[in-house]
Specification:
Number of helices: 19
Distance between the termini: 63 Å
Oligomer: single chain
Shape: globular
Number of strands: 23
Bound molecules: glutamine
Helix content: 25-40%
Largest sheet: 9 strands, mixed
Radius of gyration: 25 Å
Strand content: 15-25%
Length: 555
Amino acid sequence: MEKKNQAKDNCKYVFVVGGVISGVGKGITASSIGLILKNRGLSVTAIKIDPYVNVDAGTMNPTEHGEVFVLGDGDETDQDMGNYERFLNINLTRINYMTTGRVYQSVIERERNLEYKGKCVQVVPHIPLEIIGRIKKAGTNSKADVVVVEIGGTVGEYENILFLEAARMMKIENPKDVIFVMVSYLPTPSKVGEMKTKPTQHAVRALNTSGIQPDILIARGETVLDSKRKEKISLFCNMQSDRVISAPDVESIYDIPINFEKEHLSDKLCEIMGVACKAPDKKSWSAWSSFANHAHNGKNTVKIAMIGKYFETGDFILSDSYLSVIEALKYSSYAENKKPIISWLNSVDFETHPNKLKELKKYDGIIVPGGFGSRGVEGNLRAIKFARESKIPYFGLCYGMQMMVIKYARNKLNLKDATTKEVNPSSKNIVIDVMETQKEHLKNNSYGGSMRLGAYKAVLRDGTIARGAYGKKEVIERHRHRYEVNPAFVGDLEAKGLVFSGRSPDGKLMEIAELPKKIHPFFLGTQFHPEFLARPLSPHPLFTAFIKACISKKK
Ligand code: GLN
């Protein structure tokens, strides 16, 4: 009889580590490796390790760390988890994500519960052992043939040393089951005009000092890695040259698995892991390729304004904070043979320069995504009113839905001080109120992991845009919020034409608000985050409905 909770005897672990600099596509590499292995008939899961002390990503500012990606079980994680879910078309859980904080937290909890039976609990080996336990459990839980484990940061940093130590221990325990892929950057300094391998050589040595030798090196760079430099890396980094894979910059991340397969990466990985894999699945590969091709179709565009505030850092614009929204827009646009052109507009600008509102006319659609706090709220409210009055398709995601309701209450119920408790707790008309269950958390400053998080069911009203888009009566969507539409205002809002087309099964929580199609082509907001469930080959129905409305507006 098969024992429960036991990893497949032959489960393989592919560790993906970073050399030289971060932010050059380690997450996409890990996702792409997962995809090409999946396409060879292997079942794959993925783990992200973030070396910071935060227990999860939920308490971090998105401009610091990018998007907080919410899993079905409510875990607030790194945006790479979204990449894994999207590339692999799987749903991950809490065990697939770990941080230094999370690992220490469980070791300390266990120590307090006397689970170490009086032993001295030490950083080594107990921390790496906890890490190993988690990695194996993720494999067991999903019955995976292969677990892709991405270790955040770059080699040689203090922060990830214990994770590398865990990987090394796994390798020594089962040498055939553990392999290492290093993603390293080869700069081409403009004054030198030549791609340099030396930083990568140093990175491999740094990894060697952790007792680890990479099996595969993904050579990231502006351009293709030529054979001369491939040989150099091979010689000085101690690896066969055919295991050095060129990974030049690409226009679209969805080309990366395709490029990897041009270098026969799945063959090489399977050979190193010693697994018998199937021939590539032609049908699903051609589906992926034709999806990826859409990114290169630049002729037919749909112009979307994204109004937010988490994308400016110094002189740079970081759209990472809304990564899942951007990807969701791509999938739905590609399915309609369009390419989305997204413009980033700062909500605060509509407060300081109200005449900028007119510029919104040039867009086919407007999105106000999720957010927190009061900065930019008035600007958002103005933009939403403009979208409603000018009949520009509008899609509000979480905060974007709450603001749509606030503005409607101000304009149609004549409640000039209508607001959310998050912005002004002393207002008389708190249209968006704190949830009962949240009051205690706020009183105790207990912010981490305490919002309404993860998957909840919503029931849809017949005859609405939402019901038509989904084509079913009940849906499950992922949430991340503390505030809700105040039930005391629902009757009045509906009497004035706003339709709450999705509600929690008990009818108490408003999940979707919309205006009927005869009043506005698309004016809809969701309390949940639909973007977390959009997948390359199965676009999200509400994003698709929004994009279709944008395309019709264009005509
Ligand atoms: N700040 C709002 C709330 O907590 C919306 C959150 C969000 O947009 N994710 O309810």
